[in-house]
Amino acid sequence: MRIAFLGTGRMGTELARHLLADHELVVWNRTAERTAPLQQAGARTAASPADAVDGADVVVTALFGPDTVREVVITPALIPAGVPWLDTTTVSPADADGFARAVPTYVACPVVGTLGPAREGRLGVYVGTADDALREQAAQLVVPWADPDRLRPVPSARQAAVGKLLANLALAVSAQGLREALAFAEATGTEPEDALDMLSATGLAFIAGMKGPFVRGERSTFPGDFTVDAIAKDVRLMLDTVGGMGDLPADDVAPGAELTAVRAALDSLEQEQDAGRGDHDFSAILLPENAKQLED
């Protein structure tokens, strides 16, 4: 097939690479130089989103957030009638509902994981649409991205969006938990390495294993895998979603819907953004200032 791929940031580039072997790929990115690796691998670069989707059999988007999706796709009515649109962008459930109403061929395909799993084709992938045939077609297309046990077709775009935000909620709250565990360890005179070892037998084992190399100083937070800006944007989507429940009767709003732990995680992330480290790995929230150095 001829696939238009819009958005070739770090994750988008890895997803697009997996499609090059079997499909003709036309790529576009707002910052044109970011398409260069894919162009060198055999993709054609388009001058505009409209150029990219002209004649495409499928459109795939990997954009920064829902506002960018609206700007690039929805407002200009970019998707040709009848052409499947697979959107890997992390969006809110309300955004997913709106995009599905605007474009009948919309399929929410958010991915769960970072750059390492993306390169290895071991991501979690949700595939969400009410159209059974379209869901099957989209699921087949994204197989190269996915760990077979983590490829999840679901019956709506909204459910796919919820699944992705739940995954990133767990990530953000776990990172905040690790931040506080390391602070507690420091207060008790416990070395970070010893704390990480102790945490390996706890519910924080996953995040301690993932971010241990940053805590130990084995990796710089720049450029990292998943930036402060990216996860902060997703956390705000979570909080905005719950805030949008304010018009519901109190009995319909679940206890704890204020998402206290999520707000604490956002506070930590915003400290890094305020310090100019939004483009660093979000493990920056775990580290002292002298460990947040740019790589040469």
Looking at how many chains there are and whether they match, the oligomeric state comes to single chain
> Strands across the major sheet, in which order?
3-2-1-4-5-6
Count of DSSP-assigned helices: 12
Give a quick account of the main beta sheet: strands, pairing sense, barrel closure. 6 strands, parallel
Helix content: 40-55%
Q: Which stretches of 5+ consecutive residues score pLDDT under 50?
A: 246-253
Q: Calculate the mean pLDDT score and round it.
A: 93
Count of individual beta strands: 9
Secondary structural class: alpha/beta
User: What is the radius of gyration computed over CA atoms, rounded to a whole number of angstroms?
Assistant: 20 Å
Overall form: globular
